[in-house]
Amino acid sequence: MASKEKKRINLGLQGGGAHGAFTWGVLDRLLDEKNLEIEAVSGTSAGAMNAAVLADGMTRGGRLAAKEQLDKFWRRISDAGKHSFLQRLPWDRMMYGWNMDSSAPAALFDMTTRMFSPYELTPSDYHPLREVLDEFVDYNNLNENPAVKLFINTTNVSTGKVRVFETGELSAEVLLASACLPFLFKAIEIDGEFYWDGGYMGNPAIFPLIYGSSAPDVVVVQINPFTRTKEPRTAREILDRVNEISFNSSLMREMRVISFVRKIVEDEGLDPEKYKRLNVHFISAEEEMRDLGVTSKLNAEWDFLCFLHDLGRRTADAWLEENYDSLNVRSTVDLSRFV
Q1: What H or E segment, with its residue span, contains residue 72?
Q2: Whole-angstrom Cα distance, residue 271 to residue 139?
């Protein structure tokens, strides 16, 4: 079999709690392609953590080390989740699949976080993910000798703007800020400014990849479904859909801008050196992910994470089979769908 032509890409990794294990599966498959070079990654929340662990592994020992690091990281996430009181009950397993919609602990947790802020519930600044991240990410190495450029997205609480931390600025605080849901955690302070989850303003942000990388393609690993055919009617369905729309809005806005700029470049003949013509691709499993509600983003059971990993790997495999030759040539997503 002839070897595949070498391709250079950037990755955009969405956030979504435990659903980030889908992205783990996608990355696991992409890393098998020896002629596929990942130049830079923009990540938010769980996507930021996947990005950091991927880059750490690549910096330590290349593709194999990155695959091993990601596997160990998600195993560690599952182990940490065993100590949480948010667990599926037998009734949930029979009636709601991977979701915890009828779970009494989840309902109590949801009600409590709506009545009390993390400042009232958690006197200390303890964060359950800090210890896990410190096990798998060497921040000095990533800042000084990265094999992959990183762009980590956060939301500045004061200005309401996206704040992108780049290689050279990375720390545990940056990753925790990118995943800081304000109803669950205190805002993360960095250099006197406070930050929340990057998903509100960049999930993920694409513009850093346009200006901070020379690769002509961005491959977005999509977790949150864009569309639903069924009208949300129950309180849970409405909350789930509001969550999806909120965390997709910034990405859809950037896709509209990219579509507009591409049209101008093509129609008006503008200088492509000044106005970059970006090829855009999406790896997603919208149909399968639609069945997973917001409560399943808190489900860290190993079987669930493996289900998502396998789904991500199969999805990426099918996507590569169909679209590999289009990389560095053309977009494989119709950007007009976002206009």
Answers
A1: helix 46-81
A2: 38
